[in-house]
Design goal:
alpha+beta, five-stranded mixed sheet
Length: 189
């Protein structure tokens, strides 16, 4: 899990107000509002997808401004861009919610499924190719059965493509070309 550190330039100071607004040059920290008390503050809203929900370790320096460390919401939720992230019934929705308007592709598989094992390396390659898409995989075992049922799985592998927290496309079976076409369609919409 990574931390982003940035500085809020003077004259903004943490002790001046219980709530302050700041706009900084860093793309991840841009246009955020924080509420602060002494040495900690919490992010209330952000126009940036990767800005986290909590800000901590605030240092106030009248000459240099406040130094803030921000946890990325996707890092906090556990997804990593450029690779496939294993999810469970407990971690799936927080990651999807943190994704905002990014496309999310979920590979629903089982350990015993032959076609699932064949397409897994190709799915990993897609995660390395499409860096603007979040790739997840869910083992549809007994533990994750409630989520699999909620998502309407009928066969494995099933690929669910989500946008704005809603399922917008589905590909059943190990149909790589169909999966690529579905991802490209959702990304361009």
């Amino acid at each position: 899990m990574s931390l982003l550190q940035f500085s809020v330039p003077p004259p903004l100071t943490i002790h001046s107000s219980p709530s302050l607004s700041c706009t900084v040059a860093h793309p991840i920290a841009a246009s955020c509002r924080v509420s602060s008390t002494l040495n900690s503050c919490f992010l209330l809203e952000s126009s940036s997808l990767k800005t986290g929900k909590a800000v901590s370790n605030v240092k106030n320096n009248k000459r240099n401004g406040a130094v803030l460390k921000v946890r990325s919401s996707l890092d906090t939720a556990g997804a990593t861009v450029g690779q496939v992230t294993e999810v469970t019934k407990d971690t799936f929705w927080p990651i999807v919610n943190a994704a905002g308007d990014k496309t999310v592709v979920l590979d629903m598989y089982t350990q015993w499924c032959g076609p699932c094992k064949v397409i897994a390396p190709k799915f990993k390659e897609l995660s390395e190719k499409y860096l603007d898409v979040i790739f997840l995989k869910l083992d549809c075992n007994q533990e994750n059965k409630p989520l699999a049922k909620e998502l309407g799985i009928r066969v494995v592998p099933t690929f669910k493509i989500l946008k704005h927290k809603k399922i917008v496309k589905e590909v059943t079976g190990a149909k790589f070309d169909d999966l690529v076409l579905a991802i490209d369609t959702v990304r361009s919409s």
